[in-house]
Amino acid sequence: MTPVLEARNLTVGYKIPGGLFARPAALPIVREVNIALHAGQTLGIVGESGCGKSTLGRALIHLIAPLDGEVLWQGENPARLSPAALRQKRAEFQIIFQDPIAALDPRMTLGRILSRPLATFEPGLSAAQSGERVAGALSRVGLSADFAARFPHELSGGQAQRIGIARAIIGRPKVIICDEPVSALDVSIQAQVVNLLMDLQAEMGLALIFISHNLAVVRHISHEVMVMCLGRTVEQAPRDDFYAHPLHPYAAALKRAMPEPDVAAERLRRGTSLPGELPSIANPPPGCVFSSRCPQAQDICRAQRPVLKSYPGGRLAACHFVENAQESL
Amino acid sequence: MDCETPLTQMNANLLSLQDLSVHFAHGGGQTCVVDRINLDLAAGEVLGIVGESGSGKSQLLFALMGLLASNGRASGRAVFDGQDLISLRPKALDQVRGRALSMIFQDPMTSLNPYKRIGDQLAEGLIHHQGMGRAAALAEASRMLDRVRIPDAARAARRHPHEFSGGMRQRVMIAMALLVRPKLLLADEPTTALDVTIQAQVLDLMSEIARETGTAIIFVTHDLGVVARICDRVAVLYGGRIMEEGPAEAMLSVPAHPYAKGLLATTPRMEAPLTPRLPVIAGAPRSGGAMLPSCPFSPRCEARMPACEVMPDLRANGPARRLACHLQGGA
Amino acid sequence: MQIDPAPAQSTAALQVRRFRANRLAMVSVYLLGAVVAFCFLGPFAFPFTGEDADFDNISAPMNLLSLHPFGTDDYGRDLLVRVLEGGQVSLLIGFLGALTAGIIGVLYGAVSGFAGGRTDTIMMRAVEVLYGFPYVILVILLSLLFGGGTVALFVALVFTLWLTPAVIVRAQAQSLSRREFVEAARAGGMTSWQIVTQHIVPNTISLVIVYGSLLVPEVILSESFLSFLGIGIKEPQASWGNLIQIGTSQMATDLRLLLLPGTLLALVLFCLNFIADGLRDAFDPNER
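Structure tokens for the assembled complex are given below, as produced in the milestone run.
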């Protein structure tokens, strides 16, 4: 079966404007990423700020054109579609954002925010039909139809995120990129939104890319987890295997750093934080991206970048010393 | 381990909040954001204050520091080291802040001057408050930067704030707070904006400081995981009131208040067994409004009963724990 | 479970309410309305226009009860009617000029800021080049081209005044185009032009209204200044600028022709500035 969303050797970045006559330079933010996502599945993408996870998410729905490699939407490269066909096809590849209020135009009513994509995706709809679809989407995300007349500034964060989700599902999508969708929400609201996304996935057969820095939330919603560091995939694995024992020392460090509400376990973790900070993405080290902080780093790690290798159980990891890493855990 | 404090020290409270309330006046109305809080803090203790948006957790700290917005007013008493912070005149409060009390914020840039070298900013307080000479103050500043594990402290002191990463800026803030050798450090979500591995470093640094210098910390956060990592004791706030309070270990293993239970259940974990759906607390956090006679959590509470129309008192519930719920002993 | 909303309150309604609460600005609105109505309706109360000479009453003195309440000039033209008609020209040029310059500037700035990259660089360099163009020379050139008069003046004013709104809107559009709702609009299949007109421009409107209310007095002042120099509105057509210019030449003997248009001009400028202040407070309550 063709994956609904695929990335092949995807490199994404920004062009740094070089002035009026100078040539723009390319700064890659995401390098050589491979993804194959099937309907009804969730891939969790985890990493710290600046690892390129949000840039990757935007490239997957072609909001940013790749520098190299390609994205495939059901086997079709969006970069090769005509502009008009691309706009139609966008109905199936949607996104929700971290700051739910900033994602809504402050001068539009929620009804208009929700009906606007329909005007593009299904131009044949009458006003009444479009109104019905808006009411349907609102009720699907647990909001009453009265919200259509309201403005974004009247919403709480949780309500705004529900509107963001309603806008994403109104064109009957196949894939939704969720870019840190619960990070800005109160703890008690986070669970509501995660549950809503899982319900929608079950109902509509959605494929989700769930981008987050929070390993615990990712565990609940993902079937597969991918860890990024400085623009590269360092580990990718099925969920349960990953949480049982991460292969890459960076993934293990992330997991250990994540505080859990369990005092006995946390006491053991006090004082175990890794010193140092990650290098800048503009200036990656020649060897392994994690070599400057890795407790197991050897000379080879600083000189030679490890490639992403397969391990039993459908796992991938990019480390010269995966076996050692496993032992030391 | 580090959470064992001698009993004698426990009895002498460093800070004692008595019926502390915070009101904001606006457009003819009044909003109560902190409602009659009673809470004691021993010297050297790390107390977590947990709550969601609108719980009043940050305003509580601002009230102690005298940093409320101009339309805010604190009432009640906050006895710190024998002095009531609420009734102190600005000048006297300034002296307390210069000697025994300091605060760090979520965004370190709010308290750093972007145009001044880090070392000068740190030394300034020492020259101003403690009458130190400039050279001695600068030396002390770089010693303190070294203390918070900023690499190459002497050189770092000559840099400007924008040359530091978020984690390093927060270390600078902690260094600045520690310069006054505070007895109490107020921390308002200091690690929320940081990456997970950097958060772990800062939390390690803070618990080490608490242990080695005997500085008490009030750590405001929304994250129960952070509480588990650093706090000895925790108070759960909702709608400006304390719902439950007690030792962190007991509170996080067997919470008694329906809200504390809900909050713990709804926090996703990496170790617990997976459920098809995350447990939720229905509804949304309370956002301001007039002071209610009822329990602020009652509209969202599954164990709600007629008695909840009257806010229950915060009463002792087992060893060193207090609970404000009509279901005494827990839901 | 369904969540019901709180009562609706649009941003625009909030802003109108905040503006209405500002006393000084509201008084200014009424005063300005009165001046505008006076200039446009006042002349109908007289049986002659400002260009009709009354040879029986040449250089008539001020007499509030006579046919010529403020008297006449050397040609027997009624002073009050001339000042009112001059006001029509000045106000029309002011509001139309600001509107035209505003529209051009907003579209140019919005496109430039949203497009970014090389397009933006080229468009903004063009603005800088035009900024450097001496504007009095431009007016003289345009007067030669159009044979002088109102059209040349209007074109020259618009030509120089759209630049600043373009720069302001461009900065705003640049920050808006990085906002997540613009990304959402692209994911929603909107074309760049649709995003500029439906998302970017509406969100710069409050800024433009505030700036526009400052632009109107600027246009009126420039018109007066150019007419005062003699390269704007020409006799026998009146504007506040050329009336004041005549007024200053007679200032030693007769203050009427200086004070009458001068007072009205000052009044309009004050009103517009207070209104601009009020609008800014209404749109950006956090600015202060």
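Residues 1-11 of chain B have pLDDT under 50 and may be disordered. The CA atoms of residues 231 and 327 of chain B lie 26 Å apart. Further analysis is deferred to the final report.
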